[in-house]
């Protein structure tokens, strides 16, 4: 064996801190579920709320670009001939 000393106390400190953070994250996720459940109970669409949260995380330029592309794609689909019409042509 080598003469390397492993600082067990320091390792334990890191592990316990990580375990505490994991526990806090689990508690926060439970609280988040409760808020979504409460919103759903009041008649709000949870999927839409999640979409709003996602959009708010984006910066305005990124959101504008995404909305422009979405609009462009939707208009392209609406003006394209239907699949059956395209095959017949």
Task: Draw up the topology in text.
Layout: H1 8-41, H2 46-57, H3 60-79, H4 83-88
Helix count equals 4
Largest sheet: none
- Our measurement of the CA-to-CA distance between the termini, rounded to an integer number of angstroms, reads 80 Å
| Amount of helix | over 70%
What portion of residues belong to β-strands? under 5%
- Whole-number mean pLDDT: 91
What letter string, H or E per element, gives the SSE order?
Answer: HHHH
**Approximate shape:** elongated
For the record, the count of structural domains works out to 1
Radius of gyration: 26 Å
Low-confidence blocks of residues: none
Structural class: mainly alpha
β-strand number = 0
GO molecular function, one term: DNA binding
Keywords: Coiled coil
Protein name: DUF2312 domain-containing protein
Coiled coil: 11-38
Structure description:
GO terms for molecular function: DNA binding. There is one protein chain. The protein is mainly α. The chain has one domain. Helices cover about 80% and strands about 0% of the residues. The protein has helices at about 10-40, 45-55, 60-80, 85-89. The mean pLDDT is about 90.
Descriptive labels:
mainly alpha, 89 residues, 0% strand, single chain, 4 helices
